Amino acid sequence: MTSYAIVGASRGIGLEYVRQLAGRPDSTVFAIVRNAAKSTHLQAATKGLKNVHILEAEVTDYSTLEKAAKRISDVTGGKLDCLIHNAARMEPVPVMKGFDDYPSMDELDADFIVSYKINALGVIHSISAFLSLLRAAPTKKIVVISTAGADPTFVRKAGIANMSAYGMTKAAALIATTKYAVKLQDEGFIVVSMSPGLVDTTGTIGEKGDPEMRTLILGAAEVFKKKGVSLGAETPEQSVSAQLKLVDGLKPSDNGLFLAHTGGEYRA
Ligand SMILES: NC(=O)c1ccc[n+]([C@@H]2O[C@H](COP(=O)([O-])OP(=O)(O)OC[C@H]3O[C@@H](n4cnc5c(N)ncnc54)[C@H](OP(=O)(O)O)[C@@H]3O)[C@@H](O)[C@H]2O)c1
């Protein structure tokens, strides 16, 4: 059996990872969410599946991740093959804000710190909590879902001055992931960041999806195209199936890379 922990599995890309991995008969999937009862899309998608375990953790609260690691250990006998850290602060209003969109500098500071705790420190908390389990398995793969928005060349080419806290804190996560790759290199780990592309995850917002957000995402793809940045919106199924091909094929020389879901190192 190959064991996977997906952190941020309630909806969107994380949910799709659970769905696709659960379809593999030789896999055990730990879907880690903030609130299991409210993760209705996940509950519906995994109902009756024996190889999916839903666990609760909040990435800003390290003790909850430690408890999730203990629960995984109880099921697997102390091992975890692959960690996929996907959780991020994605609520549209804070994500879209630029530097001038705050009533005061104190409010900017407070909001950026919220994003930093989830998007940057959350990665460190998650890797650290599961590290002893990952060390005990032969696979030793850690995948952190990143974004083109953490890359200065993409930000410049696409002309994105807003999404400030999101971009800055995801860039911090990219460096944190790279540091772990360097730190764990000699132990045989493969630690990578993965850009998922532009993914229309609006189908799992709320109970019935969010058509307005969908229009915004499709509009963003058109704007990028006009600026010469090719980034068409994909379905979660398309993006995650491409990501999983890369995760399956990760090799030691990939350690530390920022990969594009389409293959190879991410380039804007
Ligand atoms: N969609 C895109 O086009 C796109 C593009 C580039 C990169 N990404 C990256 O892909 C990843 C997933 O994005 P998505 O579009 O699938 O977003 P999404 O549908 O909004 O899902 C975000 C997930 O993160 C979880 N989460 C948020 N804060 C958390 C916390 N404090 N502790 C634990 N879990 C938390 C959410 O759980 P709750 O349900 O509890 O809120 C949810 O499961 C993110 O890392 C994002 O930066 C997405």
Structure commentary:
With 268 residues, the protein is α/β, with parallel strands linked by helices. It has one domain: 3-Layer(aba) Sandwich (Rossmann fold). It is 47% helix and 15% strand. It has nine helices and nine strands. The protein has a seven-stranded parallel sheet, sandwiched between helices. A two-stranded parallel ribbon has the order 7-8. Helix 8 links the parallel strand 7 and strand 8. Helix 1 runs parallel beside helix 2, helix 1 packs across helix 9 and helix 5 packs parallel to helix 7. The longest helix is centred in the middle third of the chain and has 31 residues. The model has no long low-confidence stretch (mean pLDDT 96). It binds NADP nicotinamide-adenine-dinucleotide phosphate (NAP). NADP nicotinamide-adenine-dinucleotide phosphate (NAP) binds next to helix 1 and strand 7.
Strand order of the largest sheet: 3-2-1-4-5-6-9
Q: Find the CATH topology.
A: Rossmann fold
Provide the succession of SSEs: EHEHEHEHHEHHEEHEHE
Could you estimate the helical fraction of the residues in percent? Answer: 40-55%
Return the domain count. Answer: 1
Q: Mind telling me the C-alpha Rg? A: 18 Å
Q: Could you tell me the mean pLDDT?
A: 96
For the termini, the CA-CA separation is 37 Å
CATH architecture: 3-Layer(aba) Sandwich
Task: Profile the largest sheet.
Answer: 7 strands, parallel
The secondary-structure class comes to alpha/beta
List the ions, cofactors and other small molecules found in this model.
Answer: NADP nicotinamide-adenine-dinucleotide phosphate
| Percent of sequence in beta strands | 5-15%
Using the alpha-carbon principal axes, give the shape.
Answer: globular
Number of strands: 9
